[in-house]
Amino acid sequence: MKPANKVYIILTGVLIGALNCFSQSSKVLPYANNDLISSRDGTPRDSLTFYFPIKCFTDSTHWYTYFNTKAKLEMSKVVCDSSSTKEQLARENNYQIERIGDSYKFTVDSLLLQWFSFELYKMNEPVIFNYQPVKEICRFTWLRSFHRPVVIKVEKDKDSIYITTKMLENNIELCVNSKKSLTGNQYERLRSVITSSNLTTAPYLENRFCHMISDGAAWIFEIANDSGYYEIYRQSPGAFNQTSRGALGLRRIGELMIELSDLKGEEVY
Questions:
Q1: How sure is the predictor about 212, in pLDDT bands with cuts at 50, 70 and 90?
Q2: What are the DSSP calls for 207-231, one per residue?
Q3: 154 or 11: which leads in pLDDT
Q4: Do the beta carbons of residue 140 and residue 259 sit within 8 Å?
Q5: Full domain range(s) for residue 194
Q6: Does some domain include residue 239?
Q7: Residue 43 domain-assigned?
Q8: Residue 76 lies in a domain
Q9: Domain CATH number, residue 177
């Protein structure tokens, strides 16, 4: 008998709202407009506030399920890419292909959500996904395993364009906190890289079952403007990670924002 398809819902400390973001071609989100998250100027409610929508840290994983007659156990194998097929699994395990089922698991990576949010809170950053800001904001958060946390933020307010650079020392105080103007050409260069990267169709979060990570750096990019809010996170994009959708575009954006900032001689990984 062919096993029925299954759907598992796994929550790791937080509740899942709508999960329809996985089927959308564009991942741009509307603003939350929730007074329980932040004030209208982005001031978080408290130190436990999430700086990102929960759905941006919700991961979906496709698994094949089958019964291992030798071990006498139901087994599961994650489907990472198009090369993982039922035919291959049946051949490797001498198993009938029609008896291989499908299951889908949804998880919220609350550990990353809490970690990234607290780093932004310590650097006195605003929440930008809740209320539409009066200016366009591009924010790059760079959390390296062996170096100090960094936030680089570009803001456009009518004809004024400026970039803010922050670096946290000993997880306590800012050792870099600078702000300077950008030229229109510099801003258009950044906008061109963002547009050509086509990031807003890439998943917010890479599949963590298929991409094992250890050391490296978390690269998180957000943009908030009249069209809505978008966020993407990848681990060391372009270095260890070149195949994940959106990784190379995120790398180009992050490198340009580092170049435009007041950071000098920082190791990029």
A1: low
A2: -TTTS---SSEEEEEEEEETTEEEE
A3: 154
A4: no
A5: 110-260
A6: yes
A7: no
A8: no
A9: 3.30.1560
Mean pLDDT to the nearest integer, 52-64: 80
Span 86-97, pLDDT tens digits: 777 777 767 777
Percent of the chain topping pLDDT 90: 55
Q: Tell me, what DSSP letter sits at residue 41? A: T
CA distance 138 to 44: 18
Q: Strand, helix or coil at 241?
A: strand
In a domain, 147, yes or no: yes
Question: pTM, whole model, 2 decimals?
Answer: 0.76
- How many domains does the structure of the chain reveal? 1
Task: Measure the CA–CA gap between 163 and 45, rounded to whole angstroms.
Answer: 25
Q: How far is CA 156 from the centre of its chain?
A: 23
Q: Which tokens go with 120?
A: 């932004």
Q: Which of 245, 208, 196, 216 is nearest to 111 (CA)?
A: 208
What does the block give as tokens for 247? 């990784």
Share of the chain above pLDDT 70, in %: 76
How far is the C-alpha of 72 from the C-alpha of 133, rounded, in Å?
57
* Angle at alpha carbon of residue 20, lines to 18 and 22, rounded to 5°: 130
261-265 contact pairs (CB < 8 A, 24+): 261/152, 261/163, 261/165, 262/165, 262/176, 262/178, 262/180, 263/150, 263/152, 263/165, 263/167, 263/176
